Amino acid sequence: MSNDGYIVLALIAVTVVLLIGQFVRTEVVGLGLVVVLGMSGILAPGEALSGFSSPATLTVAAMLILSAGLERAGVVDLIGHRLAHASGGGPTRLLVLLTVPTALVSAFMNNTPLVAMMIPVGLALAKRFDVSPSKLLLPISYAAILGGTCTLIGTSTNILVDSLYRKAGGPGFSMFEFSGLGLVYTVVGLGFIVVFAPRLLPRRTALTELLSASAPDHYVTEIIVRSQSRFVGRPLREVFGGGNDVTILELVRGEEILVGPSPETVLQDGDAILVESSARTIHALLSTKGVEHSTVVADEERVSIQRVDLRVAEMVVTPTSSFIGSPVKELGLSRKHGVQVLGIRRLGKQHRVLLRDWDLKPGDVLLVQGEPAPLRNLQEDGDVLLIEGVERRLSFPKTAPIALAVVGLVVTLAMCGLPMEFLALGGVGTLLATRALEIRHAVRAVDTAVFMLLAGTIPLGLAMESTGLANALASKTVELAGPYGPWVVIAAFYCLTSLITEMVSNNATAVLLTPIALGVARQMGIDEKPLLAAIMFGASASFATPIGYQTNTLVMGPGGYLFRDYLRIGVPMNLLMAVVASICIPLFWPPHARG
Predict the structure, then answer these.
(1) pLDDT tops 70 at residue 411
(2) Average pLDDT estimate for 189-216
(3) Inter-residue long-range contacts of 371-377, CB under 8 Å, 24+ positions, other chains counted
(4) Is residue 523 in a domain?
(5) Cα 8 to Cα 23, 222, 508, distances in angstroms
(6) What values do phi and psi take at 390, rounded to 5?
(7) What is the mean pLDDT of the chain?
(8) CA 234, 237, 239: angle at the middle one, nearest 5?
(9) If 297 and its partner were Cys, which of 265, 341, 352, 498 is the partner (CB 3.0–4.6 Å)?
């Protein structure tokens, strides 16, 4: 291995640390890789920039836009509407009805927008049948991950590895070459979810689920009890009991937050209480001596709420949101939409202090107050997903048949062996030309973090090969695992990929390991496909953390999950799927010696 190889190895280490620690945006990491590889002379300028024009990068971007076309067509809205009529109410039946359709659709649609659309469906069914949302939302994410393994276009990782394989001179994979193992993988995974998710997942309640859906004349506001109030020193039961139509949703005392506090909680000076009641009762409360309105975040300053006819809603920051990295005070929510921020939930903990200075992250849940129409407009912009407080509108645009026909044609022609990158780009062009998808929605559909990371890591893979680093790592792998046979090597690649994916992007993991897998196959004289399949399935096996896969991040806030919840169900899920993959991959792609 050359000296440049050690530089590339150090660059990989820095990249992994930056991605795990999330010290800088993923887009910056991708651009940094391009600049360093080009400026250092490790790669020629054209090679350093090759990630931008790579078939894998373009195909992934185009497939994200096609998924947006399906989203705008109302496909998942229709599924949710049907599920609402078919559900029987039992937790097991709900899990089956939510996870099976999600897995089927995810085989042909990008997972992130699919899960984003299924979250309101899950929340609605949870509320209708009195099931905790935390019992349903993470299984939806897992189902999307599992279903994505069934086809070449089911996940961007499959497209990426297939592209790298073809670039290395291999024949590539066909559209449904993964379907056999994918179905086994999905059925086993869904079986585990249906049996164990109700037992392993906690029961948690979203704040807005405490709102009375059957009482539309009830509103929510926040009051503060001061020292001169007659309420101080008295328990909540005594103050708000006795037939009062007041529901105590939350009590904030300093840094302590009590959701659904005990009726025996004794009120103290400075207690902030989030209450639901009629406008008349709220007006009476605010007229009481020593009781005043609380304040909420309105852009650059905190302001008092002067109205009680506003809805309280929860919205989650999506992985592609332009809000990411910006403090709440700079979003302009109040100025542009008349929406104020009441609180933020991150990693399962709710925060109500110094909110305006918080830099938002993917998966953050904002508790906001505003009128229904502006709240819906915020979701339409694509920066947030409205999950509670305002009903979603079912929409089936006239162009829906066009979107469905385009995606169906792309899949059909891909089965005939036509180049996927041109089919996907052609499909995007058709959607735009027929106005089945607007330009602004197409642009928003392209995940810049994924695009820039691919643009940076693809030339990083080239650098691994050109400097001899990939060959050196392949030799070490063969030395350690080779004596035990191909089956052990396949299992090792799967487990290694799955482990790294829990901490780093699945696409970045696949790019780093694909050159090594190809080198190992050459040195062992076996077919490359089983090793590449191990990387593809391993890169999708992200069940134990909320950061390894975007859909896991997306459901964290709405489900009220903590990090330990993912470990509790995800670790046994990972172990089970590792056994399934290690046994089945060599059966579907026997590691025969190459002729």
Answers:
(1) yes
(2) 70
(3) 371/310, 371/311, 371/338, 372/311, 374/337, 374/338, 374/339, 375/311, 375/313, 375/315, 375/337, 375/339, 377/337
(4) no
(5) 20, 55, 15
(6) -135, 130
(7) 80
(8) 55
(9) 341
Q: How confident is the model at residue 442 (pLDDT cuts 50, 70, 90)?
A: confident
Which two tokens mark 74?
Answer: 């109302």
Q: Is the dihedral of CA 165, 170, 171, 176 positive or negative?
A: negative
**Alpha carbons 39 and 550: distance in angstroms, whole number:** 32
Instruction: Report the distance separating Cα 532 and Cα 583, nearest Å.
Output: 15
Nearest Cα to Cα of residue 569 among 20, 138, 206: 138
What would the two tokens of residue 373 be? 């129409």
**Total domains, the chain:** 2
Tell me what pLDDT residue 420 has.
83
Report the predicted TM-score, pTM, of the whole model to 2 decimal places: 0.71
- For 304-365, give the DSSP string: E---S-PEEEEEEEPTT-TTTT-BGGGS-HHHHH--EEEEEEETTEEE-SSGGGPBP-TT-E
Is the distance from CB of 325 to CB of 540 less than 8 angstroms?
A: no
Query: In this structure, are 263 and 317 located in the same domain?
Result: no
Residue 284, in any domain of the structure: yes
373 in any annotated domain: yes
**Tens digits of residue pLDDT in 333-348:** 777 777 777 677 776 5
pLDDT at 244: 64
Residue linked to tokens 């795990």: 20
Mean pLDDT value of segment 363-390? 73
Q: Is residue 406 part of a domain?
A: no
The pLDDT tens digits of the residues spanning 130-145 come to 788 888 889 999 999 9
Question: C-alpha angle with apex 393: 76 to 111, nearest 5 degrees?
Answer: 25
- Residue ending a domain, choose from 351, 366, 388: 388
Element (H, E) at 32: helix 26-39
Note every long-range contact of 183-188, with CB atoms under 8 Å and residues 24 or more positions apart, other chains counting: 183/150, 184/580, 184/584, 185/146, 185/149, 185/537, 185/577, 185/580, 185/581, 185/584, 186/103, 186/143, 186/146, 186/147, 186/149, 186/150, 188/576, 188/577, 188/580
Q: How far is CA 507 from the centre of its chain?
A: 14
Q: Do 260 and 316 fall within a single domain?
A: no
Which residue range is the domain that position 260 belongs to?
212-293
- The CATH number assigned to the domain holding 241 equals 3.30.70.1450
Q: Which of 207-211, 331-335, 494-498 has the highest mean pLDDT?
A: 494-498
Whether the pLDDT of residue 22 is over 90: the answer is no
From 388, 409, 442, give the residue that closes a domain: 388
Q: How distant is the alpha carbon of residue 270 from its chain centre?
A: 38
Examine the pLDDT at 305 and tell me if it is beyond 50: no
pLDDT tens digits for range 495-517: 989 888 887 778 888 888 898 99
Token couple for 495: 């487990």
**CA distances, 497 to each of 79, 493, 510, 549, 552 (Å):** 33, 6, 7, 13, 17
